[in-house]
Amino acid sequence: MRFLSRMSTAEKIAYVANFDSNTISVIDTNTNKVSATINSNVRPTVLATTPDHKFIYAVNSCSDNVSVIDTHSNLVISTIDVGKNPMGIAITPNGKNVYVANFNSNTVSVIDTCLNKVTFTIPVGSGPEGIAIRPDGRFVYVANYDHNNISVIDTATNTISTNLPAGFGPAGLAVTPDNNFLFVTNTNTDNIYIINIQTNTLANIIPVNKHPRGIAITPDGSTAYVTNYLSNNLTVIDISNFEIIHTIPMGNGPLKAAITPDGKSVYVTSINSDYIYVVDTAVNTVCVKISVGHNPYGVAIM
């Protein structure tokens, strides 16, 4: 098989893109200590990990490319040119393709992971930023920040199958593990759209705090965590009834979030305070903060 993990089930590693340090911090989530620092390209923003845990794909927004990092050596092994100002990234569940949202090109680049080359360029709406892939791999969802909608890409053809309405300034996306719902953070209307992606209809709207940006859903699909950039907090949503159950204070400028595979911890980047905040999901409180590089932007966990 192509994807066989080299990691034990006990190993969980968080990777943090430090925007102004041009580095990626490697955090051992068992100790919550930085174990290594990887030199990246100019202005790394968001990250995605391959299903076999062998590679990290890191978006470098100001150099218009993606770095491919070998997680065994922590070295950049390839650099792939994409569109202008890439801001979003996601990898298909089978690990064969990487989708990159290019904010200033209004396109999505499709990278073949066997070749580490762009094989398709897909026109989407204006200002594509957030990107998410259904767990079944059938569709890719792209948040078009300036067009206030979501482009839906059919992965079988790499063409747009439909566009879905969003609020103003959609930025972050997450799909529930059961393939039923897409959560959309609308930064300029301070709410979350929940779209039923079986019917492509709006299921609910949840008001949150100021300028929601990132969103992550627990592996069991029970809970969503939303970063509110201008409120300096994290909204916790019960997905069973779409109700807010907690608001957790964060550092200055919480931006992106990622959840450990066991669902026990949420790692939140605080871009204006150079820290990662770790939330214990059992009690929904911050249990530790970790010093990383300057202006941590994106985070991915394997």
From TrEMBL:
InterPro entries to which the protein is assigned, alphabetical: Haem_d1_sf, Host-pathogen_enzymatic-act, Lactonase_7-beta_prop, WD40/YVTN_repeat-like_dom_sf, YVTN_b-propeller_repeat
Protein's name according to its UniProt entry: YncE family protein
Organism of derivation: Anaerosacchariphilus polymeriproducens
Highest classification ranks of the organism: Bacteria, Bacillati, Bacillota, Clostridia, Lachnospirales
